[in-house]
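Table S2 (text version). Query chain:
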Amino acid sequence: MAAGRGSARQRRRLWLAAGLNLAIVVGQAVAGFAAGSVGLLADAGHNLTDTAGVVLALVALTLSQRPPSARRTFGGVRWPVLAAQANAAAVLVVTALLAVESLRRLGAHGSVDGPVVVAVALVAAVVNAASALAVHERDADLNTRAAVLHLAGDAAVSVAVAASGLVIWLVGGWNWLDPLVSLLIAVLIAGQGMKLLVSASRVLLEATPESLDVAAVRADILRDTHVLDVHDLHVWSLSDRVFAASVHLELGHLDGVQDGHPSLAQARAVSDGIKAMLAERYAITHVTIESECEPCTPPHDDPCGIARDRAAAGEPRMSGAGRD
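Corresponding structure-token output:
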């Protein structure tokens, strides 16, 4: 229930940010053409992309609330990650276009209306900063972080544009400062966008979460006196907040075991203990454990000798298409 209220509150904040950004886009575009400022026009374009990004974040937030189904067994847990990746890519595209236009304007001659640039850019900076603060959360997911990056980046660009407009106004020249500042800000925002893109891509590629050390996870599992060996250990992210793992455990040193074969109840007791430990120490909440009573020593590309056993039984080896 608390999570539902939090999502509803976040949706309201995102809608507010989207509406404010759209109003800023219109104002900056009109003022940019009137003042001849590439900084304002670039910022308007950036704001327009941010508005689309915030709307995308809203859609992803709504889809993420969908429950698991037969077709999507984890529900909509990855929609926010997809939105974050799309938003990060959009940031990089817009900053690239901004850099190209700034470089073109550096070699061109034109005048900039300093007072108009200062006034409009300062208003945009205040609105974007307020929107970023409204959307920001202490423990935000990738989707929310992407939206905040959009808004905070726009606030930074607007402040820089206002500063350059002020210098142009006071000095009565230095029109080259307007595109130069836009170029520098574009580089800074691109760096943050690239970091976000890498983080989202790691989740979608099912890479090991950056916060986890697989060797440490394996060592903690082996600390259980009933676990003799750990192999075929995989840890990945379903989203930036939901971790999953699968592992094969060789069990031993169990009371009342005959011929080295533990009972189903004993294997389950050990597995439940391992699952609880992984959830508490590493926040891995989706864990699949296969308990074994005999050593499993397959080649590195044949987990637990599945292909070897099929070949010994005379069964054809299944291709990737066959498995699907």
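Notes on Table S2: The beta strands are 227-237, 243-251, 284-292. The longest helix spans residues 2-35.
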